[in-house]
Fold this sequence. Notes:
heterotrimer; A: alpha/beta; TIM Barrel; five-stranded parallel β-sheet; C: alpha/beta; Rossmann fold; 5 helices; 5 strands; globular
Amino acid sequence: MNETKQISIPEGRDAWEAALEGSKYRDSEFTTVSGESLEAAYGPEDAPGDPASDLGWPGQYPFTRGVHPSMYRGRLWTMRQFAGFGTARETNARFKFLLDHGQTGLSVAFDFPTLMGRDGDDDMCIGEVGQVGVAISSIADMEALFDGIPMDEVSTSMTINGPAPILLAFYIACAERRGLDPAVLRGTVQNDILKEYQAQHAWLVPPEPALRMIIDVMEYCSEHVPKWNTISISGYHIREAGSSAAQELAFTLANGLEYVRRGIERGMDVDSFAPRLSFFFDSHLDFFEEIAKFRAARRIWARKMREEFGAKDPRSWMLRFHTQTAGVSLTAQQPENNIVRTAYEALAAVLGGTQSLHTNSMDETLSLPTEKAVKIALRTQQIIAEETEVAHVADPLGGSYFVEAMTDKMEREAQAYFDEIEKRGGVVPCIDSGYFQKEIHESALSYQRAVESGRKKVVGVNCYTEGEESLEIELHRIRPEVEVEALKGLAGLRSNRDATNASAALDGIRAACHSDANLLKAFITAAHADCTLGEISQILREEFGDYIEPKIL
Amino acid sequence: MTSAASNSLSTRLLAGERFALARMISWAENSNSRFPEALEAIWSRVGRATRTGVTGPPGAGKSTLVNELCALIREEERTVGILAVDPSSPLSGGALLGDRIRMEDRTADAGVFIRSMASRGSHGGMARSAVDAMDVMDAFGMHDVLVETVGVGQAEYDVVAAADTVLVVLCPGAGDGVQAMKSGLLELADVIAINKCDLPGADRLTSDMTEAVHLRTAGRDLWAPPVVQCSAGKREGVDDVLAAIKTHREHLKDQLDSHRRRKRIQQVRQVVGERMEEALWEEGDLAEQVEAILRTGTTPYATASNVTQSLLRTASGNQAKGIQA
Amino acid sequence: MSERRIRVLVAKPGLDGHDRGAKTVASVLRDHGMEVVYTGLHKTPAMIAEIALQEDVDVVGLSILSGAHMELFPRVRKELVERGMDQVLMIGGGIIPQDDMQTLESDGFAKLFGPGTNTGVIAEYIQTEVTKRWAASEAKA
Lengths: 553, 325, 141
């Protein structure tokens, strides 16, 4: 055997690059899902970060490698399937089904009337009641939703934004009616209005009064409902609306920093509310890009909180997040393939260190999921947790040249966006001018063009297609009586309540709009007085005005 | 058949049918051959509406201001026609017309009619379609007609210049004062609105504009455009803008007819030009004649002089019997 | 001389805020030379029909992902017919089960497009159908 001389890494790189010159590549652009170009391999010089200050160990600042020292050895992520449809009673039954099958937290999906702060009997709500989520118009509906479920034991996540403070008020008042101290309640309310203007578009009033209500929630909860996550700063909807991974990361964190700024402006100590801020990201199909995004998110947040805002409590530095697999990655064509897509996306979320996870069901491009599809989605998480053995080691990809290079790049791109947003006057002015909306639209359009030109492949859509297939998959349909039942419930509530009490509570809200009183407190009073969501929202719209979206096309 | 169709459309328009109004504007913008006749049928009703052109750089908040002006005008129980002109894509010729997003609360109001129009190709064509659309809205009985264009070039200026009063909207940051002066926007203005006046830089912009107006008009017999601050998004100061528009209209009063006729001359000149061009180059054998002259080695300028003189000779020969008949 | 261009209204009925598809389609149709009016979000059927009338569009395209299509789509159509706009080409897209697509297509809608449709297909469909309708109405006139 000849003795081979050990060549150095730089020498090796030169040789490798020379060898690449002559290689023939298959037909692909070799870019990420977000369209970022990739090298054929990564080496140490691509990831020049300092392991001590940029990575550390799991549970150590800047938390690139995870927020807990033991990660999933201590506790698995929370498997939290988002559910809600029809009436409160039907969703209550689905919740019990999920809890019986091993789900460990509840997540409420509301219908569009509820998301937009309207009662089911509003003219704007024709055909929408109970369709994409559950209709909750009052404390009575909230009581039916949690009937037989111990509110002091489960943690509940509520995906609602514009009227979030009102729904939270229903939840708190419901617990109070059961004789519980709100201090025992655990859960999250999404309550992230900034991304609504940017991407999801379920708003109630313009940004400034909406922000005031959010800070009211943070203030009230830090005193009375200390275990509640007062806001879940969400990139999910930004991504689903078409953004790139870097835009999702940057816009979400920019929004988070804006909430922190507003809290501090209110006079709150950053450490009194920052530990209750949580995040919510999308997990798309690009495995490594997503993992890098999650790791970069933790590092950026930790640095900003400690270095820019002077937070002292380590819990203020830690970015904890929920993940949902990418709804937009699912296809209506060959829908069973969606099970596979979702599994890879879920695995990326776990390797990226998520605290909780929702896996989409295969039929969601067609309708709300059936029970069977939901069960497969939940089983997907359980297989990752129990069979793949990936949960034993924290941040298993830490130190990978590629993953570290991508993580660094994500951080740089996010910072470039922060600078641009600041140059344009900040988050709210950028919303008013449509800056975020235009950026997201441009990314969505370029992705669509890439798919339609065949530059990006989607199995079953632009390759490996099976022609005109008829979909033989069972669909979940909302019963037509749902609307009637919801309207009947509302009419009953309005005729049985103490009218004087209700109108006094509404007057209280009107007055609170123009004082520095805490609006969440006024909403809880109104919830106890059986005021409806639509009635409370109407007052807010009257006092604060409607929001009109900017022209971006 | 065409005649019956146009008569019936104009009759329906005069009877107050909104669909007829919409369709006749389409005829105008498509240069439909039935349009001139239809316009003739409604011409006696044209000229009653007050016309305001609104322009300014992108992002100045024009649509929001137009929306709020419209709300105020409606409070006076006057009806409003709005024409929102957006540029066409030079690549595809298509257009995205999104201005009415900012006017959504007007959609349900039967006293308001909003029409979006793409600038399409030729700039003269766009100005003419816009003037035609304003005429149609006027004949329909709209008391006020507002036309909005983004102030980016001559074509857009020509559209608003056809109105009685031109409102130029500026705001701090987007499209600053220097830009507005350079681009000639200010020479067009009868009223200048400084929108988003709560933003930093608004006072500076206001004083800059006031100064610029003063420099241009002081000591001369010229209308000095008032510079008015407003914040349309917050519904503040919009009444002052409307008051300034009314003041300008009051100022025009005695000259309104001659003012409008001057603008009509522009319109006629435009149409004559287009027709001449078409008649000469597309119908006659002028192109062949030119080619023959060029073949002799003559320069383009000498060829053009040759052709023009010959055309003018023919025209003056015909004029005696033709034009004054 | 201006040539006639296809005018399309892209509309979002109901409370659903998902506008990625609507905006993408609007942009693509513009790229195919059409003049596209976009309504913005949260419009009632009456508002959509009124905008279609004022804009004298050739096509009304509805986008919905809220499940309320069987209620809202026929209402938009009814409002259009009441305004004498029954000649407008009505199309739609979104999360719509196949059965519902068939029902709507037998009830005045020319075509419904499901998720994953190539936007070029939508543009070509509009071009073909509107050209046909223009030719028919020219012949009548």
